[in-house]
Amino acid sequence: DQQVKQNSPSLSVQEGRISILNCDYTNSMFDYFLWYKKYPAEGPTFLISISSIKDKNEDGRFTVFLNKSAKHLSLHIVPSQPGDSAVYFCAASAQAGNMLTFGGGTRLMVKP
Amino acid sequence: ETGVTQTPRHLVMGMTNKKSLKCEQHLGHNAMYWYKQSAKKPLELMFVYNFKEQTENNSVPSRFSPECPNSSHLFLHLHTLQPEDSALYLCASSQGQGFAEAFFGQGTRLTVV
């Protein structure tokens, strides 16, 4: 049973518009969440994280929102750029610095 | 370039072969990991090493045998694999056993025939 789920396997967005990637989790012990980005033929790279004591974290064009009551987090990219086209993985851990559980990934395609 | 290098990038092996995957990190990290990514599945943690000691074995079959001679190098020895073991094998490292903001290698694409 997957504890971290990304229900949309793919998402297509026009350049300049907002991309919203969603992630749901079931384990209420998770308190640290991360997003990784993966290009083809490369390993995942860390993008942004959020602790459960916050509900929003922003870094440039990337913002992660956390809704603890709904056990849901989302990654917003605005404005989206063609170079953002990649697979995005959501991950969660029970303690900051503990082992991560990954979602299945969402492939984002940003069209020029 | 993330500072974590995996070789080879691609590997095709028969079910009776023995091969090894290599990972090297130049980041001064003390924890290293092997992950498996199969098609349409989440990343699966296989092994964790912290200061050269194995601290996690996520119920991985014995046909996968890890080796960590020092904090900078990690190997995955493969023996009598099955076709369903075909996947992308990713190495990662982090400062401390924590996984947050780990750095990944580019992966080895393994095909078992």
Please tell me about this protein's structure.
The complex is a heterodimer of chains A (112) and B (113). With 112 residues, chain A is mainly beta. In chain A, 0% of the residues lie in helices and 54% in strands. In chain A, the strands form two sheets. In chain A, strands 2, 4, 5, 9, 10 and 11 form a six-stranded mixed sheet that branches. Chain A starts with a strand and ends with a strand. The radius of gyration of chain B is 13 Å and the shape is globular. Chain B has no helices and eleven strands. In chain B, the strands form two sheets. In chain B, strands 2, 4, 5, 6, 9, 10 and 11 form a seven-stranded mixed sheet that branches. In chain B, strands 1-3-8-7 form a four-stranded antiparallel sheet, with no helix packed on it. Chain B is mostly beta strands. Chain B has strands at 4-7, 10-13, 18-25, 31-37, 44-50, 53-57, 64-70, 73-79, 87-94, 103-104, 108-112. The model of chain B has no long low-confidence stretch (mean pLDDT 88). At the A-B interface, strand 4, strand 5 and strand 10 of A face strand 9 and strand 10 of B.
